[in-house]
RagB/SusD family nutrient uptake outer membrane protein
Amino acid sequence: MKYTRFNKALSLLLAGTLMAGITGCSDFLDEQDPSNLTPDSYYTIPDHAEAALAAVYADTRFIGNDGGIFSSTWQLLEAPTGTSTTETAQNSDLNNLYGLVYDGRTQHLINYWNGLYRVIANANLVLDKVPAITPMDEGQKKKVLGEAKFLRAWAYFYLVRLWGDVPLITMPQTAASEDFRPAPSSKETVYELILEDLKTAEAAGLPWTDVSGRASLAATKSLMAQVYLTMAGFPLSKGASHYQLAAEKSQEVINYSLANPLTLNLFPDYLSLHDEKFDNRLEHIFMVQYNVVVAGNPMNNMFPNFKPVTFAGPSGTGSTVPTTEFYESYEPGDLRAKNQEGFFYTSYYTNGSGAPFDLGAPYIFKHFNQTALGKEGVPGSRNNNLNVPLIRFAEVLLIYAEAQNEVGGPNALAYDGLKRIRDRAKLNTPAMGTYTKDTFREAVWRERWHELCYEQITWFDMLRLRKVYNELTNGFDEFVGHVNLSSNEPLQSKHLLMPYPLPEMQNNPNLQPQNPGY
């Protein structure tokens, strides 16, 4: 069961729309109305702790928020990569992202900032209020607090990579709080909190995997591996020590998989990646949870524009489509580029299940839920319950391969991880002895671009590596000066950070100076 239950009373509490209790001159009028909730009166039983935690998980769905016509918040992390373009061109903010001329007024950027800090605010409430709940099983309490810390770390990890120095808020705030308008903390300080939170989550008694979609030990260790890998690169440049830590954490997840291959592993095929019955299972280590009862899958902007590929017929979406150059950069025979079997499709069925027709160009198939939208001869259910992947086991294999290579060159486990990714794609992998440290490094980077595309990961690879895959040369360019083929515009040094959102700077005069170049 997906973790989507949400307590309506708590929703009111967390939204800050509470009313004060009624007072009067008689004693009985001084009694508190139980319907008038406050943070102090609400957190009294274990069910309240679980409902509050559910609210934090629900907040992660901000990535599907409205980004204007034909656009969604998640496109902030896709449009600047150069691997996609748009057919609609009717959203000025999205066009600015593609054209690398976005600024602090861009709606996607504002939505990301607000969404991440909402996750943090509600996680802080859980961390502040749940410890005092009595009676409550200590194991349950520890687990709830561990999950809240995981989610807070997850949110700060996005913030620090996107904006660098950001306000560090670790307690619930009101307008009367002393630090209600906090100044940015250093990147180093933010990363210290992220690692502290993840270490607490790691020791919280979480199960290795959790098919309900809640944070697990595998998710925690995988996120730690991501954090260490990022810290090893730019801008902190921690180097070998943190590549070693990234290798160690990812290897722990790989070792568990080797001992439990039916629980944690690669899917045998790519269709399983976007089959809703496999949500939160096997390869999917951590996902944003979706169910149409609460909120349906938000990736509709990856469907072909004005072409009847779903039960709904022609649509007005299609604002994220692959560039021809990126699609053609896959090796000959790569199953990931094969029509309707890999990550793309070039033909489909009228209204999802009717007569076949040619699309005329490649489109992104990676988030296409055939159960909901239809497939050959089988109409869709119309209920798009597909989750959005955040951490896959495939990425863990590539983290280990990259990190181990940086520490001591490719070893057997690193090579095996790379080969497993390529084996599934039906590609031959050169013998281990043919690689040098440098050629193995680029081989792993190349697989990250081709395996993890359109999952909001590529932009962060570009930032930490300060390298960008060149689809035409099959090599890697320096970040600054690389020309995105989606816009024919070069990346600049200012693009290494996002601008602070202008509305937030206006509300918080301590959020300054603006990041360079904006």
